[in-house]
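Attaching the record inline, Q. Sequence:
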Amino acid sequence: MTEKALRLGTRRSKLAMAQSRQVAEAVSQVTGRPVELVEITTYGDVSREHLAQIGGTGVFVTALRDALLRGEVDFAVHSLKDLPTTQPEDLALAAVPLREDPRDVIVARDALKFTDLPRGARIGTGSPRRMAQLNAFARGHGLDIETVPIRGNVDTRIGYVHKGELDAVVLAAAGLQRIGRIDEVTDFLSVDTVLPAPGQGALAIECAADNADLIAVLGELDDPFTRIAVTAERSLLAALEAGCSAPVGALADLLADGQIVKEMRLRGVVGTTDGSRMVQLSTTGPVPETHDRAVALGRELAAEMLAQGAAGLMGERAQ
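Structure, as predicted:
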């Protein structure tokens, strides 16, 4: 007799469904069991408010976690950057699979690159982090842009460009890759221009903390380097006491000498949404060998950023 299907809780958006299908396939391969998707509507999906105003953190996550705790689903898949930085004791982060491209990208009219946009170009994004860094880059390079707060799924956002309402929109490369629309990108933004959100491009697979068998199986999908990197990034975010709607960018990348990974570099940035004031720092050291060391790395960089005035830049939200 065939084993009972595992139930995977997912948001209903096209991107969430695409991510969840990929994970479902991988889980099916390691368990030999069928996986069925259970669609769950979250507050972030139905609210019309801007994410920065509804608090950002957890708005896409809470309903999925509630379904897990009620036993309606066996495990859930989240975009890691949506997860609040404190992990509930009754839920386990069972796996962080290999990360997709963490960069932000531009989809612009006439296939334009960011630096080729016309004077006064209107660029849409719902993220104070992206606004802060794009505006800071524009200030430093004599570009004249206007960042416009927008909401909606990928179709809606790219639609603003096709309809001529905006000159460009900023999106995450990983999301476009997962829904098969990466060829619509007109420019990949270097992480030197825009640091991504902590955890961007990575997925989180969560299940009940007391389900040891499932944790062990899901753990086979875990990528240790990705987990260490996002742990450091999220620790920085937590130490800055900022939710995922705050203008904080962070990226931990591994520096390799040939095939041998030697060090990890962690970069962090925080700024006012108009880009007028920024605190950007980085630290490089041995690759953390434990969760606690990765957490400590994030905390240390955050402390340096706070010493340089980062806290004063974070109370601002995109209006």
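Residues 26 and 173 are 21 Å apart (CA to CA). Residues 50-56 have pLDDT under 50 and may be disordered.

More tomorrow.
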